[in-house]
Amino acid sequence: MTATNASTIRIQIKATGLLADYLPATANAGTAEMEVPDGATPGDVIERLGMPGDARYLVILNGHTVSRDERGTRVLQSGDRLVLSPPLVGG
Amino acid sequence: MGWQRKILRVNLTEGRCTVEPLNMDWAFAYLGERGLASKYLMEGMDPKADPMGPENLLIFVTGPLTGTMASTSGRYAVVTKGPLTGAIACSNSGGKFGAEFKFAGYDLLIFEGRAANPVYLHLVDDQAELLPADEIWGSSVWDTDAWLKSRHQDSRLKIAAIGVAGERGVRYACIVNDLHRAAGRSGVGAVMGSKNLKAIAVRGTRGVGVKDPKRFMQATRDAKAALRDNRGRQEMTKLGTNAMIDAMQEFGGLPTRNFHAVQFEGVEKINPRAMMRTHVDGHRNLVTNKACFGCTIACGRIAHVDPHHFTIVNHKEYWHASGGLEYETAYAFGPLVGVDDIDALTFAGYLMNEHGMDPISFGGTLAAAMELYEMGVITDADTDGVALRFGNAEALTVMAERTGKFEGFGQILGLGSKRMCEKYGHPELFMGVKGQEFAGYDSRALQGMGLGYATSNRGACHLKHDTFAEDMEDQSGNGKAVPCKESQDRTAMVDSTGVCLFTTSAWGVDEFRAQIDAACEGEWTNERLLEIGERIWNLERQFNLAAGLTAADDTLPKRLLEVPAPGGVAAGKVCELDKMLNEYYQVRGWTDDGRPSNETLARLGL
Question: Is the pTM of this model over 0.95?
Fold first, then answer.
């Protein structure tokens, strides 16, 4: 487990649908590596990327869903894989 | 106002077309489209009748908003008893055909009996005639469309037709309109074929009146603004419904290889990004998007298959652009059968439209056949020498064509997965409910979807309820019964208006009410509309119970109830249907054995 400096950690972020448009320019196939402040939450990442705030996003952290309540409190760890999906409209 | 107040009754046995007034009591109680036609079906036939026999009714129906300025007002439905399921079938379609027969002046076209020889209906405003279809019997949907336009010297005819699959009774044959839209599920095309009815060709030159035009203009304008600004709608416009495949992959709800897995390693080759990728030679799968009549969403895709691809390299007739991948086709021809060749998926999709078959049911049946083949239950000797292995793109495209033409092993695939699996002694490999194959959602991951699948009146269906938000938030069976029931009622209402279900990305009941109240006689409230939805749901249930279905049919295959999901967010989980079903019956006001109680029936006027 390494942090690139004392106050940031590196995570992998995947965004599906049009949310992929908000990823950094380095993103490939909807996936990017990002440095975020130590102690950041999924809610912080959503805000940092400039994504419109929407409680109905699907948030998956390391293969487990993050409930709406936890988005602002769950602390990310270095090497985490965070997935963000827009609200689903079925068809 | 809204309604045309007219139906056309076509007695195919006697070769007679008669015009009748619309039953307005029924229109006010059931609204239109799905609800109204279900009432006509219930009152017009014995639910125990053979779906492929002359007693079955085949009803084409619009809603009061069809053909108006409301966004997405191109919708119509085909309602009948389904040969795939033995249950009520309500299959919804877009394109232009529905608005056109509304413009011709009709709310419903009801086909009864069976023609002695193949016929088609030619309908131009007041003129309705049944004409011989001998020259097109045996033709594909596309050839039929071209022949009719030439025969009548009218390129603006709107045509709904079946292919050979419908003629020969493929259990999931569908009715294709406007070349690549379809009333897809439950085998409504086979009913049409059983009646020797090849096509309906219609031109309509009248408009659709509304009660309060000024208020209607305002209501539709406000509703369009809501759609325009909605981000869910924007996803569908830009990416098409196949955007779902990436979300389901990450979630772990993407049924793969006949539901053996819930994630598919080939997703990046068949997702919207793959559809929009430009290759070095300039080829790109996606050409553009496409809208149905009156639609401001345009979720439809138009695609090109790579002309060098093995499927069409020697077939110039397929080098044109045609209907591209939407989610269910991508799922059924991709992960479900293990294939990641985007051109094979797209070409197989073309064949579904050309020959008139439901891609979901075809893919589900092929997936089960692949499992039988890999088990050694069927061999090359059965399958015309084609290796039906998961992942074999050639198996997908060759068998799609064989089934469409009802040739070789295609005749077995044409039975549908349930009957085919029973034939080979492995009923447990059928992945569906009430004979109808599942859509692209694994209900070990999406639990509310499992309840929706099990209780949908037309067999496994992902469109009859909406518990996506609840299923994303909570992967248990807790708290799913109420949102499932409420969304079923709401969806039944939406399916009865004549506009598209995808407006629900932005529209709540308020938006539907505002448009209906401005268009239709009477006073319309949210409560009245939702009660209509509940009434429709219970009427459909009554039809099914009278047809012989029971609560025992509200179930899921063992693979979902007993085999834990192998990965994804619900790894280790099975579908908790037993936890959800009893609560659901209670919430519905039904008895423990799944029958609407007398109180519920009385409250709904049933």
Answer: yes
